[in-house]
Amino acid sequence: MIIKDSTFFTECILGLGDGKLPNVSLECEEGSWWIKIPNGLLIPDSDNHVASVVSNTYPDLTNRYTDPDYLRNRGSLTLTNQTVDEIDSYILNVIPWDTTTYLSSDSICKPFGKVFDQDMMFPVEFLNSLKFPRLLNHELHLKIGIPIILLRNINPSAGFCRET
């Protein structure tokens, strides 16, 4: 959802909650059960949905991606991490500079006990394909100038603190 005018968005959400938005009925239905979302809250339809979201959320991104005030006032709310990954990947492709890829560890600890060849049960390709909420994927792609948000304190003495 792209919110270009927060006052307009707030009024629409409050109107929805209070039942004040006009109802619309479809031709095949008897009652009015639907509401019409105001055009100011919609992104125009296109063949490339991710490009539409990015261009509407971040107009002039290639020239302003290093401006903290520009980025601070924008964001996308998605339902799945897969959609987040698609948007992030698209933005990384739009931004100039070379991409540096960092890989996670791709092995498991040796088992304790009598389980032999447990490491053979989990091939490296399988371990690299796993995705978990709140954990980074196996591959982390970064570019010079792209902001990141740390979710954990990595090295506070060096300034690598969460939410910075």
Task: Describe the fold and architecture.
The protein is mainly alpha-helical. It has a domain at 1-42. Helix content is 33%, strand content 7%. It is built from seven helices and four strands; from the N terminus they run H-E-E-H-H-H-H-E-H-H-E. The protein has helices at residues 6-17, 49-57, 61-64, 68-72, 81-94, 118-121, 124-129, and strands at residues 23-24, 34-35, 100-103, 139-142. The protein has a two-stranded antiparallel ribbon with strand order 1-2. Strands 3-4 form a two-stranded antiparallel ribbon. Helix 2 (49-57) crosses helix 5. The model has no long low-confidence stretch (mean pLDDT 79). Residues 125-161 form the DNA helicase Pif1-like 2B domain. InterPro entries: Pif1-like_2B_dom. Pfam families: Pif1_2B_dom.
Q: Which keywords apply here?
A:
7% strand; two-stranded antiparallel sheet; mainly alpha; 164 residues; 7 helices; 4 strands; extended
- Largest beta sheet: strand ordering: 1-2
Order of helices and strands: HEEHHHHEHHE
How can the largest sheet be summarized?
Answer: 2 strands, antiparallel
Count of alpha/pi helices: 7
Backbone shape: extended
Strand content: 5-15%
Mean pLDDT across every amino acid position: 79
Gyration radius, rounded: 22 Å
The structure class reads mainly alpha
Total strands: 4
Helix content: 25-40%
Query: Which regions have little confidence, pLDDT < 50, spanning 5+ residues?
Result: none
Euclidean distance between termini CA atoms: 25 Å
